[in-house]
Fold this sequence. Notes:
Elements: H1 2-12, H2 16-43, H3 45-52, H4 62-79, H5 82-109, H6 116-119, H7 126-141, H8 149-180, H9 194-211, H10 217-221, H11 223-254, H12 266-285, H13 293-318
Amino acid sequence: xxxxxxxxxxxxxxxxxxxxxxxxxxxxxxxxxxxxxxxxxxxxxxxxxxxxxxxxxxxxxxxxxxxxxxxxxxxxxxxxxxxxxxxxxxxxxxxxxxxxxxxxxxxxxxxxxxxxxxxxxxxxxxxxxxxxxxxxxxxxxxxxxxxxxxxxxxxxxxxxxxxxxxxxxxxxxxxxxxxxxxxxxxxxxxxxxxxxxxxxxxxxxxxxxxxxxxxxxxxxxxxxxxxxxxxxxxxxxxxxxxxxxxxxxxxxxxxxxxxxxxxxxxxxxxxxxxxxxxxxxxxxxxxxxxxxxxxxxxxxxxxxxxxxxxxxxxxxxxxxxxxxxxx
Length: 327
């Protein structure tokens, strides 16, 4: 997710060699993560089943959907490769439907549940990211479906609206947890940046609906509504950035929580890349040229965050003990 969206951001800002390098590196990441996931399912099926009904870990499976659609979007953005993108998009739809109704059903019917304080975090919003990632690719691919373009655009619209509503439900609980429960530095894990990333990708999905409005009467009829909500999502994403920076400073500077590599930091890189892409596209779609200064600067922030996190990953891999027992 993180590497793919940063690659798209780099390409949009004219850094083609960087974008290509990140894309091909990302294909290796994608293949490796699928291999590891399948191996874990085969070797530890009970552990995977337990994760699917765990309030803290289950929502992490939605990254499979989002990552698949980000790869699809990268294929279109960087190479105009729609066949591969269509296959990946279809896979994303199937995985999204299976995971959504499996995970939320299991979390609903389980008898022993955690308190809200312990059970919810910013990672829950990956479910929103998954829905909106499917909507984004639907908007990108719609013109390639010729006679079925209306169906593809309606599907993109429905997911965009559903994802937006899901964000409202979830962020209400997360914000309530923020303000009415005791907050420890260890509670502020990097996935809280998804608070911003989920509305950034909602902004991006909205820009594709704006661009395609001329191709479908329904979209034309509700175009002011789509523009308004796209701007609402972007404004919400923008509001979150100073808040998250402030909380990060409180965590690491005031509370002196150790700053060291954690795989969860990729959950902070993705929103930075997504905000860059979403702002670039929204500025063009709504003819707000003065906003272009934001992606012009944010692309370097996203690349810096990606580089630091990747170096942390390399350092961790190089220092792993060879005799470490299997989990």
